[in-house]
Fold each of these.
Amino acid sequence: MEVYRVELTDTATILYAEMYNRPNYWVRLSSGAYLEGITSGKKYKLLKSSDFELDKEVYMPESGNSPATLFFEPVDENEEAISFIEGSEKGDFHIEGIHLKKQPAQPGTFECVLEGEVIDRPESSRLTLIRAGKDMRTTPFISIPVRDGKFSYTLTADENETYELVFWEEHLNGAWRPTYFISEKGTLHFTLYPMEHRPHSILQTESALNKEEIRMQEEMEKLYPVNQLEKDRDALDQEERYYSKEMYDLKKRISAAKTDEERRTLYPEYDRLNKAGKEFSEEGIALNKKYKEYFEGIRQWKLDYMQKEPTLNGLCILKQMLDRAIMMARYSPGEEDVSVYQDIFENKYKEKFSSHPYITDMERIIASLNVKVGGSYIDFSAPDLEGNMVKLSDQIKGKVALIDLWASWCGPCRRLSSSMIPIYEAFKDKGFTVVGIARENNNTDAMKKAIEQDKYPWLNLVELNDKGNIWEMYGAGNSGGCTYLVDKDGKILAIHPSAEEVTKILTEMLP
């Protein structure tokens, strides 16, 4: 649910909202919903709804949107902000802090006005806005409605940082192409196209930082025309000439499969073709080689740009490239030299932009490279479910310990955690312990439910909205989680070990 307008009258407080979900999925709104004054705590009950039927599963149309006009009791005139609360049950929907009066600008902030049109995307009802590199599963994001093919939003910011716009339905479908920009004072005008369009977005502005971004993109496209290469790839694919004949046949069989189980039986064939070098046609192989050459050229162009006089544009590029390089260093060792970016950071940007939040972010992710087998774990404090701050080292000192980073929404994480329960029971009296840290969004309701369902017998702490930057600190990126087995001295013995591997190590260390 998204509230886009509030009207105050003598007889009612009227919320104009949109309910949204995937097309043909349902949304239900309880008649027990109410408003609550932020400072007064006073409750204002829901009187009626127009446009949207209460206490009923309402299925979304193809647009994914359904309007709702909600009438509540009139709020007191001294209320400055209210919260919408669907009900008193766990998991009921809340919208915190709906301001009833225009908020004065805070010192040091500026307004970045985003506006634009959406072309040939009738299914697109909203955009999501979030800081670049953040995960919408754990970080609050801004939802921007698209109405009649147009959108607008005023972003209030206090730093020049890279943000990304993503179509909401692309995110739901698990594949998206972000549109990047730098927050700065001024107006940015976007023209957004379907994902397959080349380019998929166009930005126009007179604001200095983004104007420089546009210039850079145009120069790189002239030198390394990736958009044209993508058009060539799309044309080959349409004629079934990009992949090999065997791969196209396999794709058709996967598409025709009637059950998930049937599809899963076909995936090993995909791996076989990939390992045998039979995934692409000869034309596809040649095009991919050109891709690689272009991307290496772009990478070198950006390196040269960053090493000239350090600028805010260069800082934003460095942050994105360092994030990617460290991820590659973890999952594809040897493919990219992280030290190149570390040198640029230390020698060009660290001192000049010392007060910018990106400096602290980059220091933290560089330090995460030391979280490796043979290295030491990083200590931190996080709250337990009662809100008490707990220091990790106090819980594991002098013990062999499994530090379990997990999330209620991460199925593989929970399966791995559950597999450790019998190991914990077998070795807990021999000097072994487990400490869980759950990465959650907004509240701990889902975490509590997961613990109750999975019956974890050990202490669990919570990382809410990435406030402690624990995942970044441990180099776990935007994953649901990871596990780290450490010895009594805090040295890391294994990263993300299986239950069998943990059992083997503990049997040798704690006979």
Amino acid sequence: LIRTVKEIKDDTACKREIKMMLIVKPKMQQESETTKKLIKEKVDIKSMAMGITKLRKGSNETVIMGCDTGDEMKKLKETENYNMKEPPQSRSKIKIINIDMEEMNLDDNELVNIIKKQNKIDAVNMCIVKRIIKEKKNQSGRGEMEVGSVIIELDEKMHELMLKKAKLSIGCKKCPIFDHISVKRCFKCWGYYHIAKNCKRDETCHKCAGNHNSIDCTATKKKL
């Protein structure tokens, strides 16, 4: 995966835009469409001198509003008749692969310190959130060896700087680095952006796409 500096900047701008959002919930029970309509009628956007980047229906009677700046978010929060809150934010993540087991056997703090020291990285809030171990064929093609990957959480500025490096020195190796994006997937309908617990769709088999449990499927070829 090769990302240009422009792509990284575009991603960063997109993340900033996502952060300027509010979840609007009415104080009295009503449908999201009704809330959306009332916001347009009662919240005087023009006189408040602000720009709205997004206004769409959310789940559980809510409406999602996007703003241009933090000051505009503050103004909207003071609007009566609605409970407005910011959505929870997840920090940026990177994935580093092909790490030797000698380094993978270190604890989180030791491994992070090695990454910082070898690559001259000055980051305070940088932590490992997941480790992955898998087998890989030797360069000679004979036998297999274990290698590791780590997913690291860090702030946006450091995330951008790390991606520009493409590879990091860890131990005696240059390890590739990638942007890590988590996408929710439902294991009931196999759709995205939600989980099975909250799924209201029919069950779908991941082998043949039929409306039955995959365990009961007799298909020999996968369609999903």
